Amino acid sequence: MELTILGIESSCDDTSAAVIRDGVLLSNIMASQKVHEAYGGVVPELASRAHQLNIVPVTDQALKAAGISIDEIDAIAFTRGPGLLGSLLVGTSFAKGLSLSTGKPLVEVNHLQGHILSHFVKEKGKDKKLPCFPFLTLLVSGGHTQIIRVDSPLDFTVLGQTIDDAAGEAFDKCAKVLGLGYPGGPVIDRLAKEGDPKRFKFAKPHIPGYDYSYSGVKTSLLYFLRDMLKEDPDFMEKNKADICASFQKTVIDILLDKLVKAAKDTGIREVAIAGGVSANSELRSRIVEESGKRGWTCHVPEFKFTTDNAAMIAITGYYKYMAGFRTGLDAAPVSRAANYCSATPGQSASGKAAAL
Ligand code: KG4
Ligand code: ZN
Question: Quick check: 207 pLDDT over 80?
Answer without folding.
Answer: yes
